[in-house]
Amino acid sequence: MAMSKSQANSQYSVKTELVDEASINHNATYLFIKRAMDLIGATIGLILSCPIFFIIGVVYLFGDQKGPVFFKQKRTGQYGELFYIYKFRSMVVNAEEKLKANNELYKKYIENNYKLEPDEDPRITKIGRLLRKTSLDELPQFINVLKGEMSIVGPRPVVEEELREYGDKKKLFLSAQPGLTGYWQACGRSSVGYPERVDIELYYVFNQSFFLDIKIIFLTIYSVMIGKGAY
Predict the structure, then answer these.
(1) Residue 142: pLDDT above 90?
(2) Is 220 exposed, middle or buried (0-12, 13-18, 19+ CB in 10 A)?
(3) Full DSSP string of 153-215
(4) How many of the other CB atoms lie within 10 Å of CB of 96?
(5) What pTM value is reported for the model?
(6) What count of other Cβ atoms lies within 10 Å of the Cβ of residue 147?
(7) Three-class SS of residue 109?
(8) By the 8 A CB rule, do 159 and 113 touch?
(9) Between β-strands 70-76 and 82-88, what pairing exists: parallel, antiparallel or unpaired?
(10) Is the pLDDT of residue 8 over 70?
(11) Extents of the domains making up the chain
C-alpha cells in the first residue's frame, strides 16, 4: 500500500551524515542481475507497448494537438552525467517558455516541488492529462533503460534545479543509477514532496537489492492502478 508523507518521513529517514558513497551496496552479482532484468524488461516493455506508441502517434499527428509525439528533457544521471529522458509529449509545444512567462505561476511551480495541479497548469494537453494519470507518458523511458542511462528501478532522475533539494547529500543520491520507477513512486509519487522525497530516495540508495527492486515494481503497479500521486 502507498504511504503518507508522515509515514515516509519517519520510516525512511536515513542518517547520511554517518556514511559515505563507499558504504553503499555495489555488489557485482546484484548489479549484473539488475542489468539483465533491465534489458529483458525494457525489451518486453517496448514490444508490448508498440500498439500504444502507434495510437498516441496517430493522435498527435492528426488530432488538434499536432506536434512532436515525444518530449525529451535533460536530467541528471548517475555520477552527475546529463542525459535526455524520453516521454510521450503531454504538454503544448514550448511548454517551459509558456510557464516561465508567467512569473507568479512559475514561482508557485518551484514552491510546490516543481509541480502544478493539472487544472491550473497551462502546459498540459487534454490527452496529456490522460497519459499522466495512467503513467503511459513514461513508456518511452524503456529506451533510456536499453541505452544504459536508466534502470527499471532506481531513484527518479531530476532536473538540475532539483539537485539543490539534496544539499550535501547530492553525491550520495547520484551514486545510484536513476530509475523508471523507484521507492518515491511506490510511496505516492507527486503526493510526497521535498524534503520527504530526499529521505525516501536515499533509503533506496542505501538498501538497494534484488528483492527491494521486485517489491518496488509491485508497489508501483498498485500506485498506478489507484492513480496515487499521478499528475
Answers:
(1) yes
(2) buried
(3) ESSPPB-GGGGGGGGGGHHHHTTSPPEEE-HHHHTTGGGS-TTHHHHHHHHHHHH--HHHHHH
(4) 11
(5) 0.80
(6) 12
(7) helix
(8) no
(9) antiparallel
(10) no
(11) 5-90+125-226
